[in-house]
From TrEMBL:
<dbReference type="InterPro" id="IPR025665">
    <property type="entry name" value="Beta-barrel_OMP_2"/>
</dbReference>
<protein>
    <submittedName>
        <fullName>Porin family protein</fullName>
    </submittedName>
</protein>
<feature type="domain" description="Outer membrane protein beta-barrel">
    <location>
        <begin position="20"/>
        <end position="182"/>
    </location>
</feature>
<dbReference type="InterPro" id="IPR011250">
    <property type="entry name" value="OMP/PagP_B-barrel"/>
</dbReference>
<keyword id="KW-0732">Signal</keyword>
<feature type="signal peptide">
    <location>
        <begin position="1"/>
        <end position="20"/>
    </location>
</feature>
<dbReference type="Pfam" id="PF13568">
    <property type="entry name" value="OMP_b-brl_2"/>
</dbReference>
Length: 200
């Protein structure tokens, strides 16, 4: 099922790009993630991590484009804070790291020249799950693979972007996972993103 969705998404992207190839712009982007879990009677401390990847902008009208992306998105949450006054050589938090290959497919509407709003679905494939008791140093990683953690997530993303004439852009985005992170848990991924990029 997941493979079929990815193949269909890539095929649609390829067909659309081939029909508008003289107008398509490709780019790279990266930035910070502020990720947590949210749900009924559930709240977690935010994990500060990163996202990085590639994107394309496919114009379909004067002020309307489709923007598919493929990102590595580091998510999860901070498990706890540790009192460094009593513990030596330990970072000030422990992280539950739940990382994805994320494939957003966003509608992009320009409000004025350079400034656009973006919204659309994101299809997220889990690639890493571990607990790190020293997230600011090498080591401390413990792989985990909870049997009821979902390998695939459907999410929704929305945000703002400003693109300069030289191709450099800045953006902010919020992504919310519609699928349960853990099966039948009503716990969902919640990620604020801030980033920069460049369109070639």
């Amino acid at each position: 099922m997941k493979r079929s969705i990815l193949i269909i998404a890539l095929a649609v992207f390829g067909i659309t790009a081939s029909n508008a190839q003289e107008f398509v712009q490709f780019g790279i982007k990266g930035g910070a993630n502020f990720a947590s879990f949210t749900g009924d009677d559930y709240d977690s401390e935010s994990r500060t991590a990163f996202n990085v990847g590639v994107l394309a902008e496919i114009p379909l009208a004067d002020k309307f484009s489709i923007q598919p992306e493929v990102l590595y998105s580091a998510q999860g949450f901070d498990i706890s804070e540790i009192d460094q006054d009593n513990i030596v050589d330990v970072d000030d938090n422990i992280e539950y790291q739940l990382d994805y290959i994320s494939v957003p497919v966003l509608a992009k509407i320009y409000l004025v020249e350079g400034l656009s709003i973006q919204a659309g679905p994101a299809f997220n494939f889990k690639v890493n799950e571990e607990v790190d008791n020293a997230p600011l140093e090498d080591g401390g990683d413990t792989d985990v693979n909870l049997s009821n953690t979902q390998d695939f997530e459907v999410a929704g993303a929305a945000g703002l972007e400003y693109k300069f004439n030289n191709g450099f852009f800045i953006q902010g985005r919020y992504t919310y996972g519609f699928s349960d992170v853990i099966e039948d848990s009503n716990i969902h991924n919640s990620v604020f993103q801030a980033g920069i990029g460049f369109m070639f």
